[in-house]
Amino acid sequence: MSGSNEISRRDFIKVTTGIVGGLIGVAIGLPTISYLIDPALKEGGKDVWVSIGKFEDMQVGIPYPFSFTRVQVNGWERTSSSFGGYALRKSDDPKDLLILNSRCTHLGCTVNWNEEAKGYICPCHDAKFNLEGKVLDGPPPRPLDVYNEFRLTEDGHVEIFSKAG
Amino acid sequence: MWKKIYEWLDERLGLTDLYTNLLDRPEPKGNWWNTLGSASLFLFVMQGLTGIFLTVYYTPSPDHAYDSIQYIMEGVSFGWLIRGIHHWGATLMVIVVFVHLLRVFFTASFKYPRELTWLIGIGLLLLTLGMGFTGYLLPWNQKAYWATTVGTQIAGSVPFVGEFILKALRGGPNLSALTLQRFFSAHIWMLPALLAGLIGVHLFLIIKHGESHFPTKED
């Protein structure tokens, strides 16, 4: 009360309520934040080798289109995502392959090889890439992505290493 | 500096007035039974918050409702905590609201001029039960399915309009995706909106009339 150093009953209640309320808030609030951002902290699927076609079917100098889907478990559902690209054989050497990802480096649409234009055209914003995936025209910030890890199996299939996600 | 900011805000928002009238208002001598209304309000807010967080993962579809809750319980960090609070908080809220009603009854606090506060309180109890009824279906497990089958069947036993009520509750003659969807809609939008509105009026009346004294021997 007034004039004494002792804390008044009223102030004691106020301070105690504040402290207990704060503790409860933290004890519930922190797990809640973790609950909300949980999917962002989860690992994606596994990395796998995917066959994209037979080496003998690919002709030298002509882009060979391929596509594959990967199924991943997201939450309570299986989601299949499509991936694709073009394999360009430069010579008879199986190591002499350029495997491009057809995902446009601008905003993620799928580019298509256009024989007349001699380039990969993106339908979304008219981006154009050459046979090697270099940017010829349009807004993309960098060349098409390349699958650097690939191998030839014993039965003549070309496999690429597909990373999670 | 802070004092100046506070004074500027206080002049325009009336913070000090709000504080004195809402949190520092005079109370008659009471006991712990007088805190049940605040406890109900706390539980309502708690249910609201945890419910909002549950909708981040829950899916009101017969195909995914059960799986999405399994995912909340096992796949999401602290999902068990959020759902656990919501689950047990629901039961606790019904109990607390009902005991609050008993206290008001036994201390005769429902009398003049507080009749409307009492009536609105009855509405709040019914809405709380409605929240329990609609929320019970959402996990879409066997217990939920059959409880709702029985519950809507009971509503359907009303003379003359029973069949209409049953169809309106279920969104058709059978328990289906429509039932789950409309229970979900009622559970997260309609009933909470009504509850929040009526709680506002209930609180306004409590602040306006102040809390009642316990009856004395002369009463």
Search tags:
heterodimer; A: 165 residues; alpha+beta; Rieske Iron-sulfur Protein; four-stranded antiparallel β-sheet; three-stranded antiparallel β-sheet; 34% strand; elongated; B: mainly alpha; Cytochrome Bc1 Complex, Chain C; 0% strand
Order of helices and strands of chain A: HEEEEEEEEEE
Number of domains of chain A: 2
Computed Rg of chain B: 21 Å
Reported CATH architecture of the domain at 37-139 and 184-209 in chain B: Up-down Bundle
Low-confidence parts of chain A: none
- Helix/strand/pairing class of chain B, anyone? mainly alpha
Q: Overall pLDDT of chain B, averaged?
A: 94
CATH superfamily of the largest domain in chain A: Rieske [2Fe-2S] iron-sulphur domain
H/E element order of chain B: HHHHHHHHH
Q: Supply the number of helical segments of chain B.
A: 9
Describe what you observe in this structure.
- The complex is a heterodimer of chains A (165) and B (219).
- The model of chain A has no long low-confidence stretch (mean pLDDT 89).
- Chain A folds into two domains: 1-42; 48-162, Rieske [2Fe-2S] iron-sulphur domain (Rieske Iron-sulfur Protein, 3-layer Sandwich), CATH 2.102.10.
- Helix content of chain A is 20%, strand content 34%.
- With 165 residues, chain A is of the alpha+beta class.
- The termini of chain A are far apart.
- Chain B is an all-alpha fold and 219 residues long.
- Chain B has a domain at 37-139 and 184-209: Cytochrome Bc1 Complex, Chain C (Up-down Bundle), CATH 1.20.810.
- Chain B contains nine helices and no strands.
- Chain B is globular.
- The interface between A and B is medium-sized, with 11 and 17 residues.
